[in-house]
Amino acid sequence: MSMFNKKTIEDIDVKDKKVLVRCDFNVPLKDGVITDENRLIGALPTIQYLVEKGAKVILCSHLGKPKGEAKPELSLAPVAKRLSELLGKEVYFAKDDNVVGENAKKAVENMKSGDVVLLENTRYRKEETKNEDNFSQELASLAEIFVNDAFGTAHRAHCSTVGVTKYLETAVCGYLIQKELKFLGEAVENPQRPFVAILGGAKVSDKINVINNLLEKVDTLIIGGGMAYTFLKSQGFEVGNSLVEEDRLDYAREMIQKAKDKGVNLLLPVDHIIADKFAQDAEPVTTENENIKEGYMGLDIGPKTSENYANAVKNAKTVIWNGPMGVFEFENFANGTKAVAKAMAESDAITVIGGGDSAAAVNQLGFGDKMTHISTGGGASLEFLEGIQLPGIVALNDK
Ligand code: AMP
User: Fold this and answer.
1) Binding annotation for substrate
2) What is the atom index within ligand 1 of the atom nearest the CA of 356?
3) Which parts are annotated binding residues for ATP?
4) Is 88 a catalytic residue?
5) pLDDT, average across residues 73-98
6) What is the pLDDT of residues 34-43, one digit of tens each?
7) 236: Cβ–Cβ under 8 A, 6 or more apart, which residues?
8) pTM of whole model > 0.85?
9) Is 356 in the active site?
10) Host domain of residue 301
11) Tell me, what CATH number does 31's domain have?
């Protein structure tokens, strides 16, 4: 069973069919106003295609964590309004505190081909995150076909991502998931080489399986950010007050050994930007080498390291990146992250950003459109890199 060869909306006939589409409308809201509508814009191609093909399009999504209660501040009503404007066509909001209630049923019954209905927040129902059959069945009863286009929740087996496929035989992916499978999937399964992975972020413990799995696949593994100090300490370097996970020192040693055994080039920082406190206004000091003196902590990779990492990117044919190289939220400690982003932007390689903070950093720096692919799911793309089968994708029909 391959996770990559899944049927898409283009492989099926949707004309006059009721199609339930799981979207990712989990947008940030402030006082009922959507503050970042990228996810709505991202969902448009799939919705537009289905509308043009004459489907009856029933959209659903979660928003935030209402924990099984109908919390009015987490209603999808603002999404229906904004989506109508973006589509240039009415998105009828089927307001129902229990999601599949009288309003939803009536709205769906009255749909004509090409109409669009949005259901209420699926997490208003406590069954949703437990993948309980009754709610899956209710959702499925509205439609004849299921389309999943929410990559951000594909690593979770919920009613609206997995449960419904028990009751709807035809289950395919939309354009967003198709694109994630193409770029993340090809990078991990069939990369053009040299294949370089760059991992950063705060903690080793969050990336244990990612490091282990990527060492099986890459030619070069680059480590930066807070987790580099556990690796350096495991090799006997002085790390001062830097972030270190004492209980991961053995693991770090094992991974360094594994890299040697596999012939993977493992790159660690050779210099750092350090400070005597963790603060925006901390004075940045550049070290001469790997060692960090007492009373100081590493907050970014140093200039020699940035150059090494940029060179590795320059020579690559495929690069994937997850996690910042330093505390990029503080201006004085953002240069390492910027250098990596810039090297990727200037490269001709296939460049894939694995969501989360690195996606935010790349967009902030204005490099977004220079990357081959920026994943829309932080957690999901990490699990992808761990080699885990994502249940929301496994559940879809194979080609
Ligand atoms: P993650 O969520 O694991 O990708 O980690 C991202 C966070 O790691 C960001 O908020 C960074 O500020 C933080 N980070 C990166 N480098 C360091 C460092 N050297 N020391 C402490 N925190 C760091």
Assistant:
1) 24-26, 39, 62-65, 123, 156
2) 4
3) 207, 298, 329, 355-358
4) no
5) 97
6) 998 989 999 9
7) none
8) yes
9) yes
10) 191-385
11) 3.40.50.1260
